[in-house]
Amino acid sequence: MSRLTRRSALAGTGAALTASALAACAPPAQNGVNVEPTIPASDAPVTLTYWSWYKDLQKVCDIFNGFQDRIQVEVTWIPGGDGGGYAKMLSAVAAGGGPDIGHVDMRSVPEFALAGALTDLARYGFAEQEDQFEPSAINQVKVADGIWAVPQDYGPVATFYNREVLEEELGLRPPATWEEFHETAGIVSEAGKSFLTLDPSDGYAPIAWVMQSGATWFRPEGDGWIVDMTDEPSMRVAEFWDQIFAEKIINTNYGPQTTPWYAAAAEGNVLASISGSWADALIESVPGGSGKWAVAPMPVWGSGVGYASGVSGSSSAVVLANSKHPAEAVEFLTWMCTEPEGIDAMIEYSGIGWSTAKDYIGEARKQPSEFFSGQSYNEEVIVPMAEGQNLDWTWAPLMQRVSTIIGDGMTGAANGTVSLTDMFANSQREIVQIMRDMGLDAEEAR
């Protein structure tokens, strides 16, 4: 059985909730790990309970329920994680109850493990299934020697754009590099339109940019952390966006896929969204957009610099610490997230962003898209984005705080009150101090 201490958990990766909040509702555990012995599979039929904010997930489970009678899965809907779902799960586990399976963002998995709220799936043979998942997905649910969740969906970033206006009306191409993005955004701005809109308070947007650029903001080293938000990949991003903000060539009044964005997109006045793969379903709601939009790769920094894409958003399924049927839960979750029937059902009924399975994207995603100009964009674009990720990126143990700090700083940068280069440096100092206040050994990179 792998052993997860508080220090090794915090040095292994990170998540959204703070350690203090989790500690308040942690279940009985020793050194941050559930200490119950491995529970053998039951000889009798079992019913698993599953708390999730996915819509119609019961329909997915009913397919599994229908072809065998040994394991039955029942779903209860809960609010999204930070909207109350996490608190509900943690409180239930702390009280000795809770479901067998819970829905947790990948970046939140290590904090749940730290609180003793999860079962190490490696104890139940899940390590043997690891090669069925994209490395960029499975790496996000590992802590120390354990695997603490089953990756369920995530969002490799790509460029979704109005082909009719950008190419046919303005005679431009979707930018292949960030240098071309700068040029394109300037030309589109001169034409009285916006290539891109940005909600600067969204702290996860710049995280996807620096991830792609090759940054490793949070690096476990020995028993502590090195925080490096001013490395060359990060400064490349900061200096670039400082220039974009200074020239005021993108709209920073509202974010993508918001009500004003849809109105501007329908009128052909905002032309693109650089978003996670899950944005395709949202963009298909642009009025009158069918056949006018297309998908291109995320702009890159140039040959041999950085990676093909970053990640925006992710979900996983965890087996909570009080489950009496973890072996059966692992069996079901492996089916749901790797077998074609499970993946196709999650796409159809729950609208997952992108399958975490290594070799299957879903039957529906193999087809050309009428909305996106007849393009088979999932195979042509999103697959390379999923394969071209920064595998060295590690989540910090306070990502909710980090995203808030970065979002506040981005707002200042967009308003011209602080440069991103200064903001990244200031944020680094602030985050290191917060980590130390949490009891972590943390240092700024030299």
Notes on the protein architecture:
This is Multiple sugar transport system substrate-binding protein. It comes from Brachybacterium sacelli. Keywords: Cell membrane, Lipoprotein, Membrane, Palmitate, Signal, Sugar transport, Transport. Residues 1-23 form the signal peptide. By secondary structure, the chain is of the alpha/beta class. It contains 17 helices and twelve strands.
Describe the secondary structure blueprint for this structure.
Blueprint: H1 6-12, H2 19-23, E1 46-52, H3 57-66, E2 71-77, H4 85-94, E3 101-104, H5 109-114, H6 135-138, E4 142-143, E5 146-147, E6 150-162, H7 163-169, H8 178-190, H9 204-213, E7 218-221, E8 224-227, H10 232-247, H11 259-266, E9 272-276, H12 279-283, E10 293-297, E11 311-319, H13 326-338, H14 340-350, H15 377-387, H16 399-415, H17 420-437, E12 442-444
Parallel strand pairs: 1-2, 1-3, 8-12
Antiparallel strand pairs: 3-11, 4-5, 6-9, 6-10, 6-11, 7-8
Short descriptors:
sugar transport, D-Maltodextrin-Binding Protein, domain 2, 446 residues, cell membrane, disordered N terminus, alpha/beta, seven-stranded mixed β-sheet, three-stranded mixed β-sheet, 12 strands, lipoprotein
